[in-house]
UniProtKB/TrEMBL annotation:
This is ABC transporter permease. One of its GO terms (cellular component) is plasma membrane. One of its GO terms (molecular function) is transmembrane transporter activity. It is a multi-pass membrane protein. It comes from Dactylosporangium aurantiacum.
Length: 801
């Protein structure tokens, strides 16, 4: 059958152009994203700060959960934390006692220089300068606590005065010297230790082996050598790479989702148009299995060629795509994609699997056609809906409804579920499209399109079930994903911001002017964002945390279900959100076990449980004193003011604070959605154009009948254009119905958590996507029809189907 498949591909190559382009584009996208994702994790970052130290000791930076499944089977899930844990206080002294050991205790404290050199850097002890290459540009090392050494380039010289915001407030130093090397501000060892509050970030050891160091530290510390030493250094690019990987994964998932629709729809439409050809094969003795193998053989050949071409294109596209990610803020500056073989093999395999999966249903249907039945019904669309389409269509719609009820309880963090929810609803409606789309198109045409052209257009849309459904499906996918994700995301963000802002009882808030935070909150209530890690379903999972000072109940109207927020004090208490408390079984007066963001395990007494709320459901509130014991000495992220303004801060309203806090995340989310939907639009154009071009080839006789019946080319084109607009509007209308249903369910779910929840619809991007879909449908219908009408009507009527 492969030889016959090659012959049919040569004879009907135009019918498979859309499949080839869709598969090739999908393979290219998968290869591009695969190469980029692999480049975010492949290889290791060499150390920059600890170059001259063969061994670096730091706190552990992972949390692990071991699950015993019985019968001796156990597995361990490990998660990297944001910061390393604290080292035992006597670690440096014990290491220094090793014969021949040289020990350097390093502190890293965020400071912001004020003035021409204004920048966020880290202050280190001068002894740590020898851990990496440096040279003096001028001056001397710092000798007093009021002296510093700056890193070039800088506008300051020896003897200049420089001011900086630090965790201890505003400081003025004298520049003792300027050196080359990694960006830093060097203080005397004593001044750096006091600025760090005594916290040790790392200990550099030389003159002894790693084994000797491990023998001293035991399991209380992580001993790093080689490129692993970079793990003790701040990695500002780490979170960006995680964001990049998440965006790429979402883009690839949407591309895969849409490409299956395109390939499946194209093959189904192609098989429907080839009924007579398949009937002749059956009449000539071909078995149903052989017919199925023919269709699958065609998809196999197209999949292999398109996959190879797409992977080759991916190697070219990946580097500039990585550069775009870096320029847009999704990846670190200078990030690029490298050639790695396994992502290309994976992209090729997935592309081939998509081709075979998309053709499987069409092949099964082709094999079930009987010769006489196919010849008799070749021009009529009958029994388009099968039992499988009914069952799975309803199941997908039911799954989407279940997620609508679940998403509000998860808050804005559930954006990934929103995409899944949209895909389930769209898949369900797409499976039911042969029933819904023709009838809806006829109804819309009846209401909006009077006249002969309108009557012909709506009757064509209703009777040509396969053509209408195949055209509506890609429009539904793209417009539905665009409308549902933009609208539900915007609604969730608005609900969270409004809920958080209306809860604030303080008249104003103070925000820091530097990365060092607000050192002295005065009479206000300091807060700082953080995370904690909780054992959840047999694995460590990250949740939001908020450190808060005493008096939080006076500045925030928290929805307390049980207990009292006023009891949040000391270092052993916690207030937990309602959903998190229910999931973990935490009760007021009980114990909550978790890890702080420096991997320190703690057992805290639950003093209050909050009622359901959109922004605090999966958050824990921790006492300020606990942060002082386990976090670097940095100031507050925000202070709820109850009196006079504080030094080193600017004053804002509650609404401005929450809007600013989410502004960058909103920007990244918007760019991510634009990138994902842009790719979906490309697929939509391919699917619509391919379906309609194939359809025009089979409508030659219809066009000839209209011409021979007295219709002018202009009138025929008008009918084709009106039908295209009608079908395009039907797809957009179905997408709108899905989105309206999702938003109605989302608003009902938000009602217990937000007073008077609002539905926010970003109309501009949604209308742009819908307009582009309808325009593509119009152009892809009218242009091929205009070319076909250049053939005289008599010759056009004699063209074989």
């Amino acid at each position: 059958m492969l030889s016959i498949a090659r012959q049919t591909l040569r004879a009907r190559w135009a019918s498979f152009i859309g499949v080839f382009v869709a598969l090739g584009l999908g393979a290219c996208l998968l290869a591009t994203t695969g190469l980029t994702i692999a480049s975010t994790v492949a290889g290791s970052r060499p150390p920059v700060w600890y170059v001259h130290s063969p061994v670096v000791v730091t706190g552990h930076q992972t949390v692990s959960v071991t699950v015993d499944e019985g019968d001796g089977e156990r597995y361990t899930e490990t998660l990297r934390t944001r910061r390393p844990g604290q080292l035992p206080p006597d670690t440096a002294a014990r290491l220094a006692a090793l014969p021949g050991a040289t020990v350097v205790v390093d502190h890293a404290v965020p400071v912001d220089l004020i003035g021409a050199d204004g920048a966020a850097v880290r202050a280190h002890p001068w002894s740590s300068a020898g851990l990496h290459p440096y040279t003096f540009v001028g001056g001397d090392p710092p000798r007093g606590d009021d002296e510093v050494v700056l890193t070039a380039p800088t506008g300051h010289r020896q003897g200049d005065r420089v001011e900086a915001w630090t965790p201890l407030g505003r400081r003025t130093w004298t520049v003792a010297g300027v050196v080359t090397g990694p960006p830093a501000v060097y203080l005397t060892d004593g001044a750096a230790a006091r600025l760090a509050g005594g916290r040790v970030d790392a200990i550099a050891v030389s003159g002894v082996t790693a084994g000797q160091v491990r023998a001293v530290t035991g399991p209380d510390a992580a001993v790093l050598t080689g490129d692993r030493r970079a793990g003790a250094e701040p990695d500002p690019d780490g979170e960006l790479l995680v964001v990049a990987a998440a965006l790429l994964g979402t883009t690839a998932g949407v591309a895969l989702f849409v490409s299956v629709f395109v390939v499946a729809g194209t093959f189904a439409f192609a098989v429907a148009q080839r009924r007579r050809e398949l009937a002749l094969l059956r009449a000539a003795g071909a078995t149903p299995r052989q017919v199925r193998r023919l269709v699958l053989g065609e998809s196999l050949i197209v999949g292999v060629v398109a996959g190879a071409a797409g992977c080759a294109a991916g190697t070219v596209v990946a580097p500039p795509f990585a550069a775009w990610l870096a320029g847009s803020g999704f990846a670190p500056a200078g990030f690029t994609a490298r050639f790695i073989l396994w992502p290309l093999l994976a992209a090729f395999g997935v592309s081939l699997l998509v081709a075979l999966t998309g053709a499987a249903v069409a092949a099964r249907r082709a094999g079930r056609v009987r010769p006489i039945e196919a010849l008799r019904e070749a021009s009529v669309d009958r029994r388009v809906m099968t039992a499988g389409r009914w069952v799975f269509g309803l199941l997908f719609l039911g799954g989407a409804g279940a997620l609508v009820a679940l998403v509000p309880g998860l808050g804005p963090e559930a954006i990934g579920l929103i995409m899944l929810e949209a895909q389930l609803a769209i898949t369900g409606v797409a499976l039911l499209a042969p029933v819904l789309a023709p009838r809806l198109a006829w109804l819309v045409g009846r209401l909006l399109l009077p006249g002969v052209a309108g009557a012909l257009a709506r009757d064509n849309a209703r009777t040509a079930v396969r053509r209408t459904a195949s055209t509506v499906a890609p429009i539904l996918v793209t417009a539905g994903i665009a409308a549902s994700t933009f609208a539900t995301t915007a609604t969730l963000w608005d609900a969270e911001e409004r809920a958080a802002a209306t809860r604030v009882a303080a008249p104003t808030l103070a925000l820091p002017v530097s990365s060092a935070g607000i050192a002295d909150p005065g009479t206000g209530v300091p807060t700082a964002q953080s995370v904690v890690y909780v054992r959840h379903d047999g694995a460590p999972e990250q949740f939001d945390a908020l450190y808060a000072g005493t008096g939080l109940e006076r500045v925030l109207r928290l929805p307390v279900r049980s207990g009292s927020v006023a009891d949040l004090a000391g270092t052993d208490t916690v207030v937990v959100g309602g959903v998190l408390a229910r999931a973990e079984g935490w009760r007021t007066g009980g114990e909550a076990r978790l890890w702080l963001d420096d991997a320190t395990p703690v057992r805290l007494r639950v003093v209050a449980v909050l009622a359901p709320s959109i922004d605090l459901d999966q958050t824990v509130l921790l006492p300020w004193a606990l942060r002082a014991a386990h976090a670097p000495l940095t100031g507050a992220d925000a202070v709820y003011l109850t009196g006079a303004p504080v030094d080193g801060a600017r004053t804002v309203t509650a609404a401005d604070y929450f809007r600013e806090r989410n502004a960058e995340q909103r920007r990244l989310n918007h760019l991510a959605l634009v990138a994902v939907l842009g790719m979906a639009l490309v697929y939509t154009a391919i699917a619509i154009a391919n379906t309609l071009v194939m359809a025009i080839g089979g409508r030659g006789r219809d066009l000839a009948v209209l011409r021979l019946g007295g219709g002018t080319p202009r009138q025929v084109l008008a009918m084709i254009g009106v039908e295209a607009l009608l079908v395009g509007a039907t797809g957009v209308l179905l997408a709108g119905v899905i989105t309206a249903g999702m938003l109605a369910g989302l608003r009902a779910g938000l009602a217990p958590m937000v007073a008077d929840p609002r539905t926010v619809v970003p109309w501009t991007p949604i209308l742009v996507v819908a307009g582009v879909c309808v325009a593509i449908t119009f152009v892809a219908s009218v242009v091929p029809a205009a070319l076909a009408l250049r053939t005289p009507a008599a010759r056009l009527s004699a063209i074989r189907e």
